[in-house]
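Need tokens for this chain, all 127 residues.
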Amino acid sequence: MEEILYRILENLSDRVSGPMKFRILLQPMMAIFFAMRSGLQDAKQNRPPYFWAIFTDSDNRREMLRDGLKEISKVFVFAIVLDAVYQVIVLRWVYPGEALLVAVVLAIVPYLVIRGPMNRIARRILA
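Here are the structure tokens for all 127 residues:
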């Protein structure tokens, strides 16, 4: 088990400086763009901040998750595909778990971090 964790950490750290490193900036920027757009729409429709509301608003949780998934799914799939291509080029093998982890970090996390604050900022500006 320790060998697997070591391999994963080593492979993940190599992605930052290896070929296709442009995606380390490009994919979060794309996720942030979609998060900003969604946050502005949330503010215009007077919805609560996204990430917090997922946990506190059980009545609208399913709809909010569906909306977030619809917004970020293309970036998420693109992140998985690019990481798989990277793995084939560099590692000569595809580790699906690593590709999934990288996609979550590069696409989902920035989206969740930015959408709620963008909503709050836009509300203050629009008010």
